[in-house]
Design goal:
The protein is built from 13 helices and 17 strands. It has about 400 residues and is α/β, with parallel strands linked by helices. Bound molecules: S-adenosyl-L-homocysteine (SAH).
Length: about 400
């Protein structure tokens, strides 16, 4: 999944520039309405204030796509006194084509310039860039991964919108009921047989080359794999015996759990806050939620890797458990996108935008976009299938969680 999405020569995100929107393969919430990015800006400004309005802060977006969310966010918070004055913007993006798109969306120019200019051939080091999206210049840096962004720094606001669903998952299938305690052999006088590990009835689902040599197929591992030996028992133990006994399949995203734990470590040690938004849920884990999307339709995930988006729903329960293991970090939610955006002022923002709209068609477009963000799935909306989770230092409760 990681190779199919981010391989430098053949990955889906790394080699394509038309991924999002009507002409691309899928639509994300920031592309539906500017209100999403503006309300994430409200969340960021509230968290910056709650952190004591530090004169210097970092705003980090992980997986910014075309840069639409962060551009809307900067425009929305431009009037908050003191917030952007000492801020730097950091974009964590693996794809060179999307880094160039973000440069354009944010109206970037070279440091010292007052106007946008075309991106230099490499956005990674010098020359340094300045974004002009919020009406005031903000220094902006790109990173291929969070690892190159030092954790020790001023308080930092992290945003990850539809990023975790792109991280690779492991899938496990229950192939038999757990054998009776003591194994299947008879009890001997010398004592019971050793207890079989609880994962003995599970097999990892793997990707193999078809016997013909052409194309890929799903297989089950013939025995234990490193992941079934390590990740699976840990997660089954976290879920508890009652929940675990109900499962026939289980999908785990160790990269997502590690990402949430990294954010918790960062905000616990330097202050700030993180907001993870994605489609997924808390509560019961998923068994198999992997989908491949091309031109707005599902395609078989193994058919042509690198030519379609791959994503899996986010198990926010697992992210919360990962945060709970980090001393000083605390997770909040998940709450649905409808509750999150409603609590951050969606209705008020919509009214303000509608009042300033030039004509009825513009008002209709605003209402349609906002409605899609918060309406339930049964009405074609994203309001209950998309959720948000915040991560803060222990003892702080972010609005509107
Ligand atoms: N946040 C945007 C885009 C979501 S698509 C939106 O909601 O519209 C996923 C984004 O994450 C893309 O920008 C993709 O290039 C980036 N991405 C995926 N895997 C990544 C990885 N391992 N490291 C850094 N960025 C990654």
């Amino acid at each position: 999944m990681k190779e199919a999405l981010t391989n430098p020569h053949a990955g889906y995100y790394t080699t394509r520039d038309t991924v999002f929107g009507a002409a691309g393969d899928f639509v994300t919430a920031p592309e539906v309405s500017q209100i999403l990015g503006e309300l994430v800006g409200v969340w960021a400004a509230l968290e910056w204030t709650a952190a004591g309005s530090p004169p210097a802060c970092r705003i980090v977006e992980v997986g910014p796509g075309r840069g639409t969310l962060v551009a809307d966010m900067l425009r929305g918070v431009g009037h908050v006194p003191g917030f952007l004055g000492g801020a730097t913007l950091h974009l964590v993006e693996v794809s060179p084509t999307l880094r160039a798109a973000q440069w354009a969306t944010l109206g970037c120019g070279l440091e010292g310039s007052t106007t946008p200019s075309p991106p230099p051939p490499s956005l990674d080091g010098e020359p340094r860039a300045v974004a002009h999206a919020g009406g005031r210049p903000i220094p902006v840096r790109w990173h291929a991964s969070l690892a190159t962004l030092p954790p020790s720094a001023p308080p930092t606001l992290y945003i990850a919108h539809e990023f975790v669903d792109a991280l690779p998952v492991h899938q496990f299938v229950r192939v038999a009921k757990p054998p009776p305690r003591g194994g299947s052999g008879s009890i001997t006088r010398s004592g019971p047989l050793p207890r079989l590990p609880p994962t003995a009835a599970w097999r990892e689902r793997l990707v193999d080359v078809r016997p013909s040599g052409h194309g890929l197929r799903w297989v089950l591992a013939p025995g234990d794999t490193p992941a079934s030996r390590t990740l699976l028992p840990r997660r089954l133990a976290q879920l508890g015996a009652a929940e675990a006994s109900k499962l026939d399949a289980l999908e785990l995203c160790p990269a997502g759990a590690a990402f949430a734990a990294d954010l918790a470590y960062r905000v616990a040690s330097c202050g700030g806050s993180a907001l993870i938004m994605d489609y997924g849920r808390g509560g019961s884990p998923y068994g198999d939620s992997l989908v491949a999307l091309r031109s707005h339709g599902a395609v078989p995930p193994l058919a042509a890797p690198g030519t379609a988006d791959l994503s899996a729903r986010v198990d926010f329960g697992a992210l919360g458990d990962a945060v709970a293991d980090v001393p000083g970090g605390c997770s909040h939610g998940p709450i649905t996108q409808a509750v999150l955006l409603g609590g951050l002022g969606l209705t008020e923002r919509l009214h303000a935008l509608a009042d300033a709209a030039p004509d009825d068609a513009a008002v209709d477009a605003l209402v349609q976009g906002a409605t899609r963000l918060v309406a339930p799935d049964s009405q074609g909306g994203m309001g209950d299938t998309y959720v948000g989770m915040a991560i803060t230092p222990v003892g702080r409760k972010p609005v509107p969680f």
